[in-house]
Specification:
CATH class of the largest domain: Alpha Beta
Structural class: alpha/beta
CATH topology of the largest domain: Rossmann fold
CATH architecture of the largest domain: 3-Layer(aba) Sandwich
Pfam family, one: Peripla_BP_4
Radius of gyration: 25 Å
Family: Belongs to the bacterial solute-binding protein 2 family.
Distance between the termini: 81 Å
Number of domains: 2
Number of helices: 12
Shape: globular
Subcellular location: Cell envelope
Number of strands: 13
InterPro entries: Bact_Solute-Bind_Prot2, Peripla_BP_I, SBP_2_dom
Main location: other
């Protein structure tokens, strides 16, 4: 009798333990809506990692994806369109759940994108809009608003006619959007953009040479709008060497470390901070949600943008003006750069 009772007690203990375990597992699943039996895999095709900005974006993106137990397969095209096309097909072969693309050339990936979407794999354009084909979502920081900020601030500090634009590659659609915003702010105002130079492949030797040509021609601009802070830094290096006694108002975007240092030293007037940590984290979260079946239309703060094929759902984050007066609040207090990095201490 005692033996029978002991066996029964052990049996009941196993049953209750199993029930408790099932209950705990169910509780965890309820608390984390991203839990999925199948491992989620994101394919990230990135133009290049040679720029500080993109390495930071990728690091944040991958860390956030891991928070939700998602894998990321990264393909770095090394600034080469044909390589990016092949790598997109590699991601298709790997049967990833969603593809995120930072495109080298905005209108060069039509065939590859169509093949990926034909397999019911959603495609999200990251920071650069993909043109002339259907994509599922575009997520970026509003480049048009970057141009608006540049135009308004330059009119305040440099209300002269002859502005010079030294931008990035013409195929980078963000440059077109920046110009639209910039031009819209000065349409009925005094400043005139006398020249627009496009720096092919973000080759800073070319932007440096362009600034040298301008200096030697004697046609000194009243202000210089740069496609990003690295372009601005290349321009500043020329001015410091060949034209050190006169300050020309200069701006860029991205809030790179060198740009922040140039701002506090008085060499660059301002930058436009693009909250890339928020952008990369948001893109990672949305990629996981879309990969696991959530509909794009259910996302909050959706806008739309025409990519010359259709109106594409878009999430546009807001950029922020950064000057010497607010650099501590915007850049240092947010943790984007440290005090020591900015002030070189």
């Amino acid at each position: 009798m005692k033996k029978t009772f002991l066996v029964l007690a052990v049996f009941l203990a196993f049953i209750f333990a199993g029930c408790a375990k099932s209950k705990r597992t169910f509780s965890v699943q309820k608390q984390n809506s991203f839990v999925d039996e199948k491992k989620t895999t994101i394919g990230f095709s990135i133009d290049t990692l040679a720029i500080e900005r993109w390495q930071r974006d990728l690091d944040v993106f991958m860390a956030r994806a891991r928070d939700f137990d998602a894998d990321v397969i990264v393909q770095n095209a090394g600034n080469n369109v044909e390589v990016q096309k092949k790598q997109l097909m590699y991601l298709l072969d790997k049967n990833v759940d969603v593809v995120v693309v930072l495109a080298k050339v905005a209108d060069s990936l039509k065939d590859e994108i169509e093949k990926i979407r034909a397999k019911n794999i959603p495609v999200i354009a990251y920071d650069r809009l993909i043109l002339n084909t259907k994509i599922d979502l575009y997520i970026t920081i509003d480049s048009g608003q970057v141009g608006v900020i540049m135009g308004k601030e330059l009119q305040r500090i440099a209300p002269l006619r002859n502005w010079l634009c030294i931008l990035g590659p013409q195929e980078d659609y963000n440059m077109e959007m920046l110009l639209r915003g910039l031009s819209g702010t000065i349409k009925t105002s005094l400043p005139i953009i006398n020249e627009i130079f496009y720096t092919q492949d973000w080759n800073y030797d070319l932007s440096r040479q362009k600034m040298l040509d301008v200096i030697t021609s004697g046609k000194i601009p009243g202000a210089i709008i740069c496609g990003n802070d690295a372009v601005a830094d290349s321009v500043i290096s020329v001015l410091q060497t060949y034209y050190p006694d006169k300050h020309i108002p200069i701006c860029g975007q991205d809030a790179d470390i060198a740009a922040c240092q140039n701002i506090v030293r008085g060499l660059q007037d301002f930058t436009v901070y693009k909250p890339i940590v928020d952008l990369a984290r948001t893109a990672a979260e949305i990629s996981v949600r879309v990969a696991r079946g959530e509909k794009i239309q259910s996302l909050s703060n959706l806008k739309s943008i025409d990519n010359n094929f259709a109106e594409i759902p878009a999430i546009l984050l807001k950029p922020v003006l950064v000057t010497k007066n607010n650099i501590d609040d915007v850049i240092i207090d947010s943790g984007f750069h440290t005090y020591g990095e900015v002030y070189m201490e």
